[in-house]
């Protein structure tokens, strides 16, 4: 229906067939595989940093001490280790990540919540991706034409959490020990604690599809990708770097300011016109996304209302 969608489909089909016959030399069946991009590895991407926690992955005390400052965690490293051990008694000990294959192209759409998605008509294109990562409360109902309705992974923290269906991965971005405790309790007996914002007592999620981002990965994104700018990276930026580690091809939607220069959400009418990016280095993150697009590491669909 849309010219953008037609050309994306055409290029993707042609590239898939051209590369399929050279699969014995390639790690994936995309035109370009992120995992084969030596320059990206040399520049910033450190594949030795595991994106997700597993039951056997130990956080160093140095990494813990960096992480505990994000939201002034007062409890000890030992409490963290005990809590994480309890977490993996309930949730999968290893994350459900699609592994690279020479005859397969893992396409990922990372869908932010920017107001620049309005009237973009990107919905059908977003739905074509194998993995569709959305953030926090990003609504699809009523906005399908612009944002699609497929969600395979929803990145959240307790204060931003919404119920997810049985086929969607709940990807927890933990900022404090209580975030692990919250998900343990909210998905079982109910959570009764308090946070800086109201949190849901119960959450609907498929326990077999829960994944938790490694605090060391968050530290790596802040230090290596952002040069320690801002207090810590935004959820959206961390989700994008996460996609670079688990996908072969990454397409990015819904990042950056709207047509008025405000950092608004596509589903709401903005009343606070002075809204910016808080503790996150929003403009710096946005520039990195543009650089990755210019270097053809990702494809960035900027939306139709971007301020020029």
Automatic annotation (TrEMBL):
Name the UniProt record assigns to this protein: CMP-N-acetylneuraminate-beta-galactosamide-alpha-2,3-sialyltransferase 1
- Matching InterPro entries: Beta-gal_alpha2-3_sialyltrans (IPR051757), Glyco_trans_29 (IPR001675), GT29-like_sf (IPR038578), Sialyl_trans (IPR012163)
Asked if the Swiss-Prot or TrEMBL record annotates the protein with the keyword Membrane, the reply is yes
Q: Which GO terms describe its molecular function?
A: beta-D-galactosyl-(1->3)-N-acetyl-beta-D-galactosaminide alpha-2,3- sialyltransferase; beta-galactoside (CMP) alpha-2,3-sialyltransferase activity
Which residues of this UniProt protein bind substrate? 71, 113, 136, 196, 232, 236, 256, 265, 280
Give the EC number(s) under which this enzyme is classified.
2.4.3.2, 2.4.3.4
Q: Where in the cell is it found?
A: Golgi apparatus, Golgi stack membrane; Secreted
This chain's source organism reads Oreochromis aureus
Keywords assigned:
Disulfide bond, Glycoprotein, Glycosyltransferase, Golgi apparatus, Lipid metabolism, Membrane, Secreted, Signal, Signal-anchor, Transferase, Transmembrane, Transmembrane helix
What subunit structure does UniProt give? Homodimer; disulfide-linked. Homodimer formation occurs in the endoplasmic reticulum.
Q: In which pathway does it act?
A: Protein modification; protein glycosylation; Glycolipid biosynthesis
Catalysed reactions listed for this entry = a ganglioside GA1 + CMP-N-acetyl-beta-neuraminate = a ganglioside GM1b + CMP + H(+); a beta-D-galactosyl-(1->3)-N-acetyl-alpha-D-galactosaminyl derivative + CMP-N-acetyl-beta-neuraminate = an N-acetyl-alpha-neuraminyl-(2->3)-beta-D-galactosyl-(1->3)-N-acetyl-alpha-D-galactosaminyl derivative + CMP + H(+); ganglioside GM1 (d18:1(4E)/18:0) + CMP-N-acetyl-beta-neuraminate = ganglioside GD1a (18:1(4E)/18:0) + CMP + H(+); a ganglioside GM1 (d18:1(4E)) + CMP-N-acetyl-beta-neuraminate = a ganglioside GD1a (d18:1(4E)) + CMP + H(+)
Upper lineage is:
Eukaryota, Metazoa, Chordata, Craniata, Vertebrata
BP GO terms, sorted: lipid metabolic process; sialylation
The residues the entry assigns to the signal sequence are 1-19
Which Pfam family, just one, is annotated for this protein?
Glyco_transf_29
Disulphide bridges: 108-247
